[in-house]
Amino acid sequence: MEMFIIPLGTCNCPYEVVAPGVHDGELIKLPVPSYLIKLDDGKNLLIDTGMSRLHITDPGATWRGTEMVDILVPEMGEEDNLEIRLAELDVRPTDIDYVINTHLHFDHAGNNDLFEKATFFVQREHYDFAVDNPTFPNQYWNLPKLKYELLDGEMELFPGIEAIVTPGHAPAHQSVMVRLPDTGNVVVCGDAIYTQDNLDHDAWGGQADPVAAKESGAKLQLIAQQESAKLLFGHDPMQAQQLHRSPQSYR
To answer: Residues in domain Metallo-beta-lactamase (predicted)?
Structure first.
């Protein structure tokens, strides 16, 4: 098994959106990743699909006409198109067999429409919450051409790939354990933990349900301790600089 961390631009926002009380009044550039995993059976799996490629030329594509347009500001270059990033790895959208969405926000499901041949895995409770919810723009993921397999709780999806339910950011948000043969265990947190600041400063007030988010953060820390796993935070600029990005990989 091999994992590639694919950079897909940044989403610029006030720091208090991410970790209230830490650097209020400052702006933060949140890296937006997708993860390509080449499974042992030759199949290709993505975890999250990033922000829509529409934002390359139109940063306001998602939130124009809403108060969010000045709060969440995508910044993407042509190279941050997921289709182009995959092509650098000799992978086409039609080569993607599976997609796990940690959740269905615009920066995690924005390119779902590219993968008509894939099976998508989302928690059932989360999917039902997101349908027709304006904070989960449906135009990117709620499409008749896409096939969703709805999950009811935690499970092993493939050998070495496990769904972990981590609510707080959104109902039935899920994180993903990836058991790599050489690197060891890593957990793709999604937005269960945005950055290290959430842990260091006990700063959960930016989450939809701060109490549940704190519990999920503690749960992931315990898993990391018990499983000797590295936590990959959802949008941590400092951590992103320290990680190998595609075309480099982790095995």
So the answer is: 31-235
